[in-house]
Amino acid sequence: MVRNRSGIHSDDHAGFDRPRRRTRPRTKDRPDYSDAEVATVITVDRGRYRLRLGDRMVSATKARALGRAAVIVGDRVRVVGDTSGEEGTLARVVEVVERRTVLRRTADDDDPFERPVVANADQLAIITALADPPPRTGMVDRILVAGYDAGLDPLLVLTKADLAPADELLAAYQPLDVPVLTTQPGSDLGELRERLHGRTTVFVGHSGVGKSTLVNALIPGLDRAVGEVNAATGRGRHTSTSAVALPLPHLDGSAGEAGWVIDTPGVRSFGLSHVTPARIVAAFPDLAESTEECPRGCRHDSTAVDCGLDLAVTRGRLAPARLQSFRRILDARLSAEAHP
Ligand SMILES: Nc1nc2c(ncn2[C@@H]2O[C@H](COP(=O)(O)OP(=O)(O)OP(=O)(O)O)[C@@H](O)[C@H]2O)c(=O)[nH]1
Ligand SMILES: [Zn+2]
């Protein structure tokens, strides 16, 4: 799949969480912040933001003028006030820079509200264990769909390869050209590091799959809590409920970051009611081309009549396994619609 660096199509910029009109100050009163410093949002916690500004960490609140507009992890924001980062100081976020991408979910399929989860990522790593807990392709498919919708490049990381073989999952995702990596205790993370290099990658995975173990291995000294799952709540006591952006160190010790990992809390569901099938198709240029011959309103699923995708298979232009895998993930979206 050929994509530009940011992984998004040029028409994807419109209307990302612009503040509503009533919350926006009248233009003539709006101060000009264009020369304010720009920082990256690392965490969001009850109206407080931890920002990385150059090589210092700064705490901040949101300026009243931003109203209810969301500020999310990964956002690039303009900040004013005390940006020294010294103990007890608090800067003010006055503007969110236009987002390149937004990964969204709806809490449930019947939840009408889209919740932006992470801004400005360009890759989505889905972490799945090969056993303990057993892999759930339905969940992987749903997260993939959210990633394609957001214009993120997918990456599948299969952990616990010491416990079970990866064949089945490889067969399910290779036809979609999803890169798949496997890990196990002590395995070489070189290829994963290469894929993370210079990019911002969201890590998503069900609780217990070994996500913290992986993040700790990638970022020595980080010490994310591993395996502290509370039996009663199914949630680690110290597990944060929102995402956190973590800079990846350069292995040779040079300054700056080698990329960003945005770690998200274990997901149990990934609602997709905000996703349209057309945007999933658009993530696969070869398939999108074949749908040009479809009848109007074709949904391209396995029940579709005269679908151009079936024609493409008949003509030998599309591998049957690719179409089958594509329809499986399309179904992950459509089944969301079937149970509103
Ligand atoms: N056998 C095996 N066990 C692993 C592997 N990776 C992690 N584990 C174990 O799996 C358990 C869960 O690992 P975590 O890293 O806490 O999983 P997590 O996905 O971060 O889970 P949450 O913190 O609940 O989100 C721990 O006991 C780990 O030691 C692996 O590759 N093989
Ligand atoms: Zn079709």
TrEMBL record:
<keyword id="KW-0699">rRNA-binding</keyword>
<comment type="function">
    <text>One of several proteins that assist in the late maturation steps of the functional core of the 30S ribosomal subunit. Helps release RbfA from mature subunits. May play a role in the assembly of ribosomal proteins into the subunit. Circularly permuted GTPase that catalyzes slow GTP hydrolysis, GTPase activity is stimulated by the 30S ribosomal subunit.</text>
</comment>
<keyword id="KW-0479">Metal-binding</keyword>
<feature type="binding site">
    <location>
        <position position="307"/>
    </location>
    <ligand>
        <name>Zn(2+)</name>
    </ligand>
</feature>
<protein>
    <recommendedName>
        <fullName>Small ribosomal subunit biogenesis GTPase RsgA</fullName>
        <ecNumber>3.6.1.-</ecNumber>
    </recommendedName>
</protein>
<keyword id="KW-0342">GTP-binding</keyword>
<dbReference type="GO" id="GO:0005737">
    <property type="term" value="C:cytoplasm"/>
</dbReference>
<feature type="binding site">
    <location>
        <position position="294"/>
    </location>
    <ligand>
        <name>Zn(2+)</name>
    </ligand>
</feature>
<feature type="domain" description="CP-type G">
    <location>
        <begin position="110"/>
        <end position="270"/>
    </location>
</feature>
<dbReference type="InterPro" id="IPR010914">
    <property type="entry name" value="RsgA_GTPase_dom"/>
</dbReference>
<dbReference type="InterPro" id="IPR027417">
    <property type="entry name" value="P-loop_NTPase"/>
</dbReference>
<feature type="binding site">
    <location>
        <position position="300"/>
    </location>
    <ligand>
        <name>Zn(2+)</name>
    </ligand>
</feature>
<feature type="compositionally biased region" description="Basic and acidic residues">
    <location>
        <begin position="8"/>
        <end position="18"/>
    </location>
</feature>
<dbReference type="GO" id="GO:0005525">
    <property type="term" value="F:GTP binding"/>
</dbReference>
<feature type="domain" description="EngC GTPase">
    <location>
        <begin position="119"/>
        <end position="268"/>
    </location>
</feature>
<comment type="similarity">
    <text>Belongs to the TRAFAC class YlqF/YawG GTPase family. RsgA subfamily.</text>
</comment>
<keyword id="KW-0963">Cytoplasm</keyword>
<keyword id="KW-0378">Hydrolase</keyword>
<comment type="subunit">
    <text>Monomer. Associates with 30S ribosomal subunit, binds 16S rRNA.</text>
</comment>
<dbReference type="Pfam" id="PF03193">
    <property type="entry name" value="RsgA_GTPase"/>
</dbReference>
<dbReference type="GO" id="GO:0019843">
    <property type="term" value="F:rRNA binding"/>
</dbReference>
<keyword id="KW-0547">Nucleotide-binding</keyword>
<feature type="region of interest" description="Disordered">
    <location>
        <begin position="1"/>
        <end position="34"/>
    </location>
</feature>
<feature type="binding site">
    <location>
        <position position="298"/>
    </location>
    <ligand>
        <name>Zn(2+)</name>
    </ligand>
</feature>
<keyword id="KW-0694">RNA-binding</keyword>
<keyword id="KW-0862">Zinc</keyword>
<dbReference type="GO" id="GO:0003924">
    <property type="term" value="F:GTPase activity"/>
</dbReference>
<dbReference type="GO" id="GO:0046872">
    <property type="term" value="F:metal ion binding"/>
</dbReference>
<dbReference type="GO" id="GO:0042274">
    <property type="term" value="P:ribosomal small subunit biogenesis"/>
</dbReference>
<feature type="binding site">
    <location>
        <begin position="159"/>
        <end position="162"/>
    </location>
    <ligand>
        <name>GTP</name>
    </ligand>
</feature>
<dbReference type="InterPro" id="IPR004881">
    <property type="entry name" value="Ribosome_biogen_GTPase_RsgA"/>
</dbReference>
<keyword id="KW-0690">Ribosome biogenesis</keyword>
<feature type="binding site">
    <location>
        <begin position="205"/>
        <end position="213"/>
    </location>
    <ligand>
        <name>GTP</name>
    </ligand>
</feature>
<dbReference type="InterPro" id="IPR030378">
    <property type="entry name" value="G_CP_dom"/>
</dbReference>
